[in-house]
Amino acid sequence: MRIKSLSDKIVLYFVIIGVTAIAIVSTYSFYTSKNALLSRTFDQLTSVRVVKKNQIEQFFNDRISELSLFTHLADINNFSGEGWISLKKAPNSIRFLFEHMRDGGYYEKIFIKIKNGRTAFYNFHSPDSLRFAILHLHPEDPVSKIYTETKFSNQYYIHDYSIDPQDKKSRMFISGPLDDSTNAIGKVVIEISLEAINSIMLEQNPNDGLGLSGESYLVGPDKLMRSTSRFQENSIMNTRVSTDGVESAFNNITGTSVIDDYRGIKVLAHTVKLNVPGLEWVILAEIDYREATKSIYSIRNNILIITILVAFIVFIISFIFSKRITLPLIKLTDATANIKSGNLDVTLPDVTNDEIGLLTNSFNGMATSLREKDAQLMDERNKRITAMIDGQELERQRLSRELHDGLGQSLIALKLKLETIKGKDVCAINKTIKDVKTSFDRSINEIRRISNDLMPAVLNEFGLVTALKNICEEISENTNIDLNCIYEGKFNDLDNRISIYLFRVMQEALNNIVKHAEASVAEVFLSRKEKNIILKISDNGKGWNISQLLKPTGNGIPNMRERIRLLNGKFDIQSQAGKGTQIDIEIPVKTKANG
What we know:
There is one protein chain. The chain is an alpha+beta fold. The protein contains 14 helices and 16 strands. A seven-stranded antiparallel β-sheet has the order 1-4-3-2-7-6-5, sandwiched between helices. Strands 12-13-14-16-15 form a five-stranded mixed β-sheet, covered by helices on one side. A hairpin with a 3-residue loop joins strand 13 (about 520-530) and strand 14. The two termini are about 40 Å apart.
């Protein structure tokens, strides 16, 4: 598995942080802008819906007012004729009313039915002729049905769209009583122009607030359209609108929402129920969701482009900075590898004043310290090797001297004595042989002494305590020193290395006392505790100057100190001129069983 470098991690973290920050800001900006845009669009739809609702409601109120005016101003006697007459030849009151209603463009036809059976008929889109005659209307004709339904009513009605069974067209009417100021003597039925309603509801200009995809329309209780769709022809009483917005409006829930319209297209919609007596209509203002949010998705695309661009810039910048940061660390790594390989002659240039600069200075200080320690260790190693070699040479010289002066001389004497036997009598030969035996005994004892100095057999066979007793007895017998040896505890199970090292330390310390201390009293105290072994060697001799003891002039004390160090112990020496010397040693217990 490849380990990513610090440079790669810095670049990765910078890019992640940068892109995350941009993504958060961009997302917040996008949704804030989107909500603001949707809110503005809903406000725009609300404004359109309010205007359209007021216009439609005012339209029908005006038509009722016009019908009421007509029924009260029209002279019934003017409708007693028969046949066709010119509107221009009609009485002034009649002509004025018809011209006013025709110029408005809100009506298709008017039917005036009098109780005597005559009906006045006028088509607002035909020549200016009035017809007075008995009209034979089909029983299913909408006008005939209105006559029948409102025969005994003096109220004004707005009649919802119905399908004419003859021409299959959608027609809408308003009706009211014809009044002669005393009672109702007839009915007036006026057909409302579809174009009049469409002129209010139908939007074709994108600049009128509904853009390219918006529209406003009316829906009746049967869920069929009551105004012309912007996108579908012949939609009145043909196009069904069963959307959530229509359902909410019929349940008297007014408001904005995002719904699917009658075409199945997602739109923003505002719905409300009309307040027109006799009509259960709702009005809807809608605009395509895609058109309403088109600009915000353009902003989203721009944000994505900017995010990619900024991420690339962040990558370049972070890459440059990462190299500046990691280059000194790479140099530190290389320098550390050089030190690890043994090349201590490494120094890095200090080029920054930050934490990396401090790290570089610390590294340079460490390298300098390692060079100094290495030099010290090398010097110490050389001294120890020199001391070891010198000690070996001195031991060889001592052994050679003892062999030459002691054992060698004894063997030469034995040879000379044996050579004198030739030519002597039996008594002289026997005496010489007796002397030779005595000399052999002395030589054997000398060999034993030398062997004990090299490695006493009693140490291997009888243990540390017996070896200590022997060396103490030997010193006491051969010197004038009152040597007292004290021991506490068991030492037979000690590790052989500990026994040998302790014996050599005691041997070296006692030899120093015999040769250099000029002491009359000395003491060796050996004690075994639960975890440690305590060894104290003291004398009342002339003492030493500690500063002289620390100088590497001899091999005895450094050898003792080194042996104790190898046993993971503590070595301390206290001495003062004229007041003797004391050596304190403490080492951890290590037995043959756990060694």
